[in-house]
Specification:
Shape: globular
Strand content: 25-35%
Largest sheet: 4 strands, antiparallel
Oligomer: single chain
CATH class: Alpha Beta
CATH topology: Alpha-Beta Plaits
Number of domains: 1
CATH architecture: 2-Layer Sandwich
Number of helices: 4
Strand order of the largest sheet: 2-3-1-4
Number of strands: 4
Distance between the termini: 12 Å
Amino acid sequence: MLVIASHPVIDYEQWRTVYDGFADEQRAGGVLEEEVLRDIENPNMVYVLHRFTDVAAANAYFASPVLQAGMKDAGVAGPPTIAIVRSAD
């Protein structure tokens, strides 16, 4: 299953540096694959795709105090919008 999280950032380059340094925490939190996308008209709006094995792992990861602190340090400018989805097939 896939989590799509979107949120604005103050400065994309600063955010990306922190995000890239978070790879170990992602793996420890159950992230199997990830991808970052940016809005074409607003490059400080990011969309992060994370693949997990199950909903419980995704919920635990996004509720993690370590992740919350990392988002603050990275300059996330607002609460994320999170969608948990799965293939319709």
